[in-house]
Amino acid sequence: MPPAKRPASPLTPFTPLDFQLVLLRRMADHNADLVEDARHALGASIADMREANRRWQAMRHAPRSRGSVARYRSILGEPESVTPRRIGDLSCEAFLWPVPLWPDLRFEVLVAPGGVAWNEWLVRAPGAPSPELRALDDLTPWSCTVDEAARAFAPARPLEGSAPTRWGLAFTAPDGSGVRRDCTAEFTWGLLQRVAVTGP
Fold first, then answer.
1. Which domains, from first to last, does the chain contain?
2. Which of 27, 61, 68, 73: CA 20 to 30 A from 164?
3. What domain of life is recorded for the organism (predicted)?
């Protein structure tokens, strides 16, 4: 059993482990069993996860809070890559950091001119194979990212998430018998959490 962690003080560094616990904390509402297994793999307790989330929120809302990219650099180190990206009429830069809990994923921060971060989520790592998504049965929790589901079941319609770190998609997908169903999918930090069939 891992040694118990000491309570964090204001001077205790916020580490990549703490950041992964923040990601998990937001996913626990939908997939408690997966989160519990991941938490055990990280050697962290429920109290550790709650404390990491509390400190994260305090950092984000502090009066002198640093910008998103500076905050992630201080926690995760230098990004693995920084690449230009164009989305519609917007030119931006994509900063990617590895996330040990999900080796095939990267944490992506999209930064617009002026240094404003406008999107922060998990994406597939460059060069990592994307999952084969053909039907509803393939859409299991944590199996894919927002952009992978949107591409597989195009045209997908974005939906407003139920919280700042959540996104939704509406689309149609075949069920096990090949009948196409209207569905909605919910993602947390860009990773699939659950799918609901909304139509006949």
1. 16-61 (no CATH), 68-124 (3.30.1450.10), 136-197 (no CATH)
2. 73
3. Bacteria
